[in-house]
Amino acid sequence: ADEVLNYDDLVLTTGSTPRRLPAAIGGDLDGVMVVRGLNDVDAMAPRFTKGARVLIVGGGYIGLEAAAVAAKLGLNVTLVEMADRILQRVAAPETSAFFRHLHSAHGVDLREGVGLDHLTGDGGRVTGAVLGDGSTVAVDFVLVGVGIMPNTNLADAAGLRLENGIATDAQGRTSDPHIWAAGDCASFPWKGQQLRLESVGNAIDQAECVADNILGHARAYDAKPWFWSDQYDVKLQIAGLNTGYDHIVTRSGNTGVVSHWYYAGDQLLAIDAMNDPRAYMVGKRLIEMGKSPSPEAVHNTDTDLKELLKA
């Protein structure tokens, strides 16, 4: 029987669900998989055998990380990205170029500006793909990494306001004063929009803020966006949000160490650091402090980055 639970406050941390390919283009064939939780990884693990042919749909961080794992294990990897370049939605062309070169050097067949038209199968199992340019790819399985959808069904049923997920105020409260939301499913006010962040760090920080506010602290959520991605022997660390940037400052070091700093005019917005934890840590602190060093100082490798924090 249905059980009724009374509450003084309710927190929705319903997360998100990966987008799947439509059945009309073969998305329901056996061997077409998404990457989200450990159960997904367990299900696909037996397919990661040397020489297997995998098609990865989507050139965001999920798709690229999957491509790196597959290539390192000796699979034949084809990755298709409908946009003009990989990471187009989240990173500058300079960062896209870095990872394009990295994956090409590891044998990944990277196809940008090419979408998936449909998958083909035999006996209900995926065997191939027809791409938007008419080319075909023989495959043993397909990994789909084309984004996620916030899980808002429960909030919708409760009549809560939805805007880019479950809309909350600055404290994490929904349109019902006794219902709160946090994590992938929730959006919050940020520079005139309802921002939704998809990251582990955000899920933890936002949930802690909501817990504080249920206890009466009335604390506005101060988002400090940070992300990471591990691909081959490269650790990418990202701080800040690059929305609205108009130019990039590149700082290069030895043995492939490089960072790209996003500026809007004179304001530092974000940083992508590849194998450069020092640049990442300094950039993150600068952004959190609201400090913007001169582009010339950042670009000059003679500059001691830690000195920028004192300026």
Provide a descriptive summary of the structure in words.
This protein has 311 residues and is of the alpha/beta class. Helices cover 24% and strands 31% of the residues. The protein has 8 helices and 20 strands. It has helices spanning 38-44, 61-72, 93-105, 153-157, 200-214, 277-289, 295-299, 305-308, and strands spanning 10-12, 16-18, 32-34, 53-57, 76-81, 109-112, 116-122, 125-131, 136-138, 141-144, 148-150, 166-167, 179-181, 186-190, 193-195, 226-231, 234-240, 247-252, 258-264, 267-274. The protein has a 5-stranded parallel β-sheet with strand order 3-10-4-5-6, covered by helices on one side. A hairpin with a 2-residue loop joins β16 and β17. It is flat, with a radius of gyration of 22 Å. It starts with 9 loop residues before the first strand and ends with a helix. 37% of the residues are buried. The mean pLDDT is 96.
